[in-house]
Amino acid sequence: MPALKFKTGWSYWLFGDQSNNIAPFQCLKATEFSSKTCKSNFRSYRNVMLRVEKEIIKKTGLPKDIFRNEFKATNVVTNLENVKKADEYFDLVSDVVGKAKNGNYVSRTERTYKSKPIGELSISTVRRRMIPETLD
Fold first, then answer.
1. Distance, CA of 42 to CA of 25 (rounded, Å)
2. Which of 30, 48, 81, 106 could pair with 39 in a Cys bridge, judged by C-beta atoms 3.0 to 4.6 Å apart?
3. Model confidence pLDDT, tens digit, residues 79-103
């Protein structure tokens, strides 16, 4: 499981990496990884992405199956319309990570704290900063 930034992780979740014959990560299961560390990292990553999906579905009112099917078509990443739609959805969920100062979030990087846009945060930083879900 590669270390991914939040926005890159979202792209891999929806589209995978066609140039390297990697399916969308939403189609993978933790059991497909060989080491315990990779399995654990994937589970954490999957939980973040499922939470993002849940927030998008809540904010757009789309049924879950329609949201998922939007990105299942062949050559989905080469379709500019799908990439734009994925970016729009990503922008909807920035508040799940917490409040930003001037559009940036503080993340710890090698003993210093730096302010970064949400898309540049690591998946583990996003996971730690996620606001707990509230029951509707």
1. 9
2. 30
3. 677 778 888 888 877 766 665 555 5
